[in-house]
């Protein structure tokens, strides 16, 4: 018996719109460029944003290097990146507030808003937090999708370069504002990207005197330029602690902003903190630390604050006010910009320490 082949029916296929992106292509080092990724489609309450600039974060470095944290957290295949500015391209049918054409950034921590912390003003520590570029597709791409609630319209007087890094700047603002620095002496331990932002934010927020420590002389020099009265090389040992104490009536600083995550810096920082002082901890130690609670916290009666993300959206309003005050100096912290396709050079510039904050120019 013979079968007669039917002529193939030609179904017209409209090609899905695509975009360029950087994604985690394997469980190992690096990221890969894809010029043909499917463009994300916004859900009913989502906003589709055309990305203009995106900041490279320390977190992206962990993802690039594929360290233990990244290997345990990051799904292979994901589009990375979580700091950006862009323009709304399209909105889902249930979006009520925003329209295409608006220049925006976004809070990258997405929650359903239903757990205890979300319902009591602490959504930044919600149990169901999913982060763009970490748990779901991020912004090293022509397009990114976020829920309407996460959109942050950018004030017209804030330049794109700054609007691209509101996420880390918000970490610095959250740390400074939680500790309370007005008319108080402050030690910033670790002046990497967020530590340097912390210096200019603390100055703008009314800190009386800012002391800094780090192991990088260039960063220490920049911290001084941004307003630190003293910047100490922590590699030279604990000698600076007596200098700080001498300068603060023999008591120690009122506030410690811990931005390094280094065990030795943490211990030095607490030694330089006065009894009854406040320590706000943002730096993430790579492993468990050995720390004398009796000496550093209990007997001293210190207040210790863990800082995670940005308060939604109190931190964002405070950050906008500080930016509009004209008192934040960010130009020398955002050192380099590269086109998206030049991402390998961009990451190298950041990872070697040649650049401080490095921004990818994604679109026009
Ligand atoms: Zn970041």
Describe this structure in words.
This protein is of the alpha/beta class. It has helices at residues 58-65, 68-73, 116-119, 160-163, 166-179, 193-204, 217-225, 239-247, 263-272, 293-298, 314-324, 343-351; strands at 18-23, 32-38, 46-56, 83-91, 103-106, 109-110, 130-131, 143-147, 151-153, 185-189, 209-214, 230-233, 253-258, 273-281, 303-306, 334-339, 357-361. Strands 3, 4, 5, 8, 9, 16 and 17 form a seven-stranded mixed β-sheet that branches. The protein has a six-stranded parallel β-sheet with strand order 12-11-10-13-14-15, with helices on both faces. Helix 9 links the parallel strand 13 (253-258) and strand 14. The mean pLDDT is 96. Zinc ion binds next to helix 5.
How do the helices and strands line up, and which of them pair or pack?
Blueprint: E1 18-23, E2 32-38, E3 46-56, H1 58-65, H2 68-73, E4 83-91, E5 103-106, E6 109-110, H3 116-119, E7 130-131, E8 143-147, E9 151-153, H4 160-163, H5 166-179, E10 185-189, H6 193-204, E11 209-214, H7 217-225, E12 230-233, H8 239-247, E13 253-258, H9 263-272, E14 273-281, H10 293-298, E15 303-306, H11 314-324, E16 334-339, H12 343-351, E17 357-361
Parallel strand pairs: 10-11, 10-13, 11-12, 13-14, 14-15, 16-17
Antiparallel strand pairs: 1-2, 3-4, 3-8, 3-17, 4-5, 5-9, 6-7
This protein binds zinc ion (ZN).
Quick recap of the structure?
28% of the residues lie in helices and 26% in strands. The chain is an alpha/beta fold and 364 residues long. Strands 3, 4, 5, 8, 9, 16 and 17 form a seven-stranded mixed β-sheet that branches.
